[in-house]
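Reply to dn_fold:

You asked what the input looked like. This is it:
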Amino acid sequence: MIDYKYNEDSALQEIKSYIDSTYTQHYSGKYQATDMIIDAGHGTGFCIGNIMKYAKRYGKKDGYNKKDLLKIIHYAMIQLYVQDHDVEDEQIKSVKLSPAENSIFDLLKTEPISGDVCYRNIPIDSVSKKCQICDCWKSK
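and this is what came back:
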């Protein structure tokens, strides 16, 4: 076992407890504002803006409030998620489709669709929970 000099193991447990509590406090609905902001392509600005907000207010509003530091870490973790998935989106966009696949893709994007669809309006496979064309995971 690692002997952490700065009690990182305890800090990680506290961070996990804080993040868990945020899910029970305000993540009760199916879609959250953060999800919609990320899906709209504004995740990085949202996360970095919140990191800056809480860093700037640390030591001012409510003094040296540990909760501000926990929020900074949580938004940094959400940004790690955004970064990883933005890379996946770029990889998805760079996939070369055959002319037949392109025409199906274009048709699916323009036709009204009911049921689960990805953010590109492509039907989501009910078993794999992924887009049927580009294999993305995002839903509207």
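DSSP finds five helices and no strands in the chain.
Hope that clears it up.
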